[in-house]
Sequence to fold (395 residues):
Amino acid sequence: MIGHAQIIYLDNNATTQLDPAVIEEMLPFLTDYYGNPSSGYTFGRQVRQAIELARERVAALLGCEPGEIVFTSCGTESNNAAVNSALQLTPNRKHVVTTAVEHSATRRHCETMAKCGCSVTVVGVNGDGSLDLDELARAITPQTAIITAMWANNETGVLFPVEKIAELARRKRVLFHTDAIQTVGKIPIRLRDSTLNSLALSAHKLHGPKGVGALYVNRRSAFKPSMVGGSQENNRRAGTENVASIVGLGKAAECAAAALAEEETRVRAMRDRFEAGLLELVPGTSVNGDRTNRLPNTTNLSFAGVESDAALLMLDRDQLCCSAGSACRTGALEASHVLQAMNIPAERARASMRFSFGRFNTEADVDKALEIIPAAISKLRELSLPRPAPEPATA
Ligand code: PLP
Fold:
């Protein structure tokens, strides 16, 4: 196993390292406090209190009421639950509006809904990954139950204008859900005065544990659960709570709220130095997506003439972790749907890599990455150069 001390982890949009403070807070709920939070005796009530504290901490991070938070098993479940709820609430409205750059947690779910008799309109994006609000407005019909659009894109970091979408949805009297899984903990969020109906988050993107998420449901919005059974989560999500993970999510939210302002500046500075360094050191490097309106931690870069899956392997040898913007499917290198939706030429899209920073990255990581990546890219370019024809053999 690779010790994390050795790796250069620039893939914080994939997942993040658990904060030690989160582990410490979770441990008693994996050992001593194993009571069922629904039990009526003190040993159960103590556990219930821990869940309620976590709810308060998540609500504080989002600037909303604790009663608006429903704990789930992950971000995917939260996204699915919001759309399912809307379709159940208005059975005569069977139309969903979404965007071309959503995570598979939304995309695949919409595809499944489309196979079950729902119609889905997919709104495109501009070349810089931004959303055309007029196109979105035109997509809404009297049959529309919900708009589901992400807040921050996981591949490019580009931000959608969620407050404007929420306002549009309110005027058109349709629900609006946002996948804020990449947003929460990275930029300030204040839902108190928002008209957003629901928002999804996931603990493992903010230095919390995997396998736990939350769905914010605006107190003025109706909600129908997807998971039915016991009366947990105020009848909004049945099933005995994943107590230790919920406690971990609560602590992660508290840590994120405390660190947000400092981290936003520090992480942005690291990302910007890294990006500027590569643009200078590696000729033929370009940035994909709007550079101003994006998350502070993400950069999506294309290195001309390089296949990103090969670059990923090369960087892995130096224990540098990042993501490729293309994947080998059915024997061919296929560019990501996000870059395709941005109309980025296939060759440039296939050459794209995502680097994402987080709390535990250091300036030393940036220094090392700025040595490793230029060397790897020039090696790959050398390898892909057409070889000179061999000299004719002489006797
Ligand atoms: N939505 C976005 C934008 C994501 O980046 C991810 C995770 O990569 C998900 C949804 C899925 O979240 P989870 O892994 O918690 O199900």
Summary: The first strand starts at residue 8 and ends at 9.
